[in-house]
Amino acid sequence: MSESIKNRYEFVILFDVENGNPNGDPDAGNLPRIDPESGHGLVTDVCLKRKIRNYVETAKEDQSGYRIYIKDGVPLNRSDAEAYVHVGTDEKSVKEAKSKDPDIDRRIRDFMCANFYDIRTFGAVMTTFVKAALNCGQVRGPVQLGFARSIDPIIPQEITITRVAITTEKDAKEKGTEMGRKYIVPYALYRVEGYISANLARKVTGFSEEDINLLWEAILNMFEHDHSAARGKMAVRKLIVFKHESELGNAPAHKLFDTITVKRKDGVEIPRNYNDYDVSIAKESIPAGVTCQQMTQ
């Protein structure tokens, strides 16, 4: 495995949606998620991590060291079992194996980190509370994301549609179409902030320079292979990366995030595209020991 990263990072992603639902809320009939107090749109960190995982899986196609642990159709215990085989045990004999080898838990964890990109990046809870469960422990990942929040309040729209796909034989005899609904956000620009701990990368998962370059690539392209009618047109507009000179960092994260301002241009009352916003970085306010890089597609 390559050497782990040596620098702390913070980053900001700006992405937008046009005529789509970026992250439906199942507790609200799949309406776009919204902060009820401010009216700002929300997209969960789990949603964005899923896009990153999907891109890595598409780009790497299960190459050694770049497999995805949390993926559709693959039970977690199936992947967990591989680590047990690697250390020469199984769920029935692992207690005896641990009594002979106190280091076995670390070896299991290291196997999972080395083989699964998303564990090495985001961490994972690899304990399932079922009969004869396989326990690969818990890993705190060096890369963490917050919730994305829209720059301005959003007003989700409910669109009524008709379809000719009739559900049952009985309905087919009585009608030719059925009614349906779609929920969209006409336009919104979202901002999400992220953190990368070089300390956790070194001590726990081994997240490397190759891994971080793949992360930037995945973020910039996370919507390019995820298009659907439900999500409308989504795109990452800008990725702003703060790199510290040291492992523990040279400035508080909030001070770096405060240097980035995103606001509507003068005269724009209802933003309808990315060009309706100004994005500025107060580079003179960035503390010594930190560099700033802007990335776009």
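(the above was protein one; protein two follows)
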Amino acid sequence: MRIAATLRMALRALRRNKMRSVLTALGIIIGVGAVIAMVGIGNGAKSQVEAQIASLGQNVILVFAGNWSSSGARSGWGGAGTMTVEDTDAISREVPGVIAVSPEVRDREQVQANGLNWNTQILGESPEYLDIRDWPLEDGAMFTEQDVRGTAKVCVVGKTIVNQLFPSEDPVGKIVIIRNIPFKILGVLHPKGLSVMNTDQDDVVVIPYTSLMKRLSKRTNISSIIVQSSGPDVSDRVQRDIADLLRQRHRLGQGRDDDFTIRGQQEISDMFTATTKVMTVLLSAIASVSLIVGGIGIMNIMLVSVTERTREIGIRMAVGAHGRDILLQFLIEAITLSSLGGVIGILCGIGSAKLLSVMAGWPTLVSISSVIMAFLFSAAVGVFFGFYPARKASRLDPIDALRYE
């Protein structure tokens, strides 16, 4: 009963100075709102990157020709011409846990159709490519293993190619010209959007890798190998086995650097989400400064309130109130200010995150955990910064307090 009466008195005291109470809570409102908005932006960016990584497919391992350094000469991914189709066949045959493999050859060419032209990426792949990438066809069919063996002039195209070269007609069965060679379109890929490298995944023409190597680029090596393992639990072991096999096939003795680079899907995800994690922590830390400033504001106003209400405190003590009652009253006032500020700040933060998402096009994701943490932190600020003024009020001498003018 005593606590309920103390709470009513604390709320009554806050209502007597509405404007001051609102201004005092403003620091908490801004701080909590900023934290919620910043965490929402960071989580949105992280979820977008994770979705883009997932668009690679399930349990995908990427093997690139070239390494960051090889025998003293620096070389990036795709910078060494050491991988062959035979390496792909060996991985498929000899590495347990591999369920699908596609050799990959990349090129950029100007493609033409319907009197229009477009510069795009040409991918040379095997028929397993779409299964590995978990990439369904929107229309038509994928080329077959027979098309690969026969270096057939066939392809499947992304949605961007359709929009640029066939804006008002069905492209399936039509012809697209690549280096003056006609390729028949067998199918259209389902749209995938941007990749983790922020490139348009739908801006692509996929042809048999043999057709690209023999008809277009006249090359004997491949750019990379896309491997799908049977599950995430065997991916690390599959990566090690692939590395051992390629070192053996490429005759890389002990002490020599790899002439290839292997990246698992989880490793790629960690690499690209690390930046967003740092950004989220940094933005949240900066926004949290506003909460500290708001807490200092609460302490300042509560000290002023103690001074203004010294006679009131003396009268309460004279009629029987204990020091703990005075302590509880002022502590409740501080917690109420910070908690109400926290609630309003949460609403402002969620609204700001949604507004940024609509106006700036930034992905935002406000999680329940961030809302709960922001509210608890705002309440903790009230306890921390409100305790000293409340303790000062509770330790006033009743006689001195009654004499105070």
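Reviewer note on protein two: The chain is about 55% helix and 20% strand.
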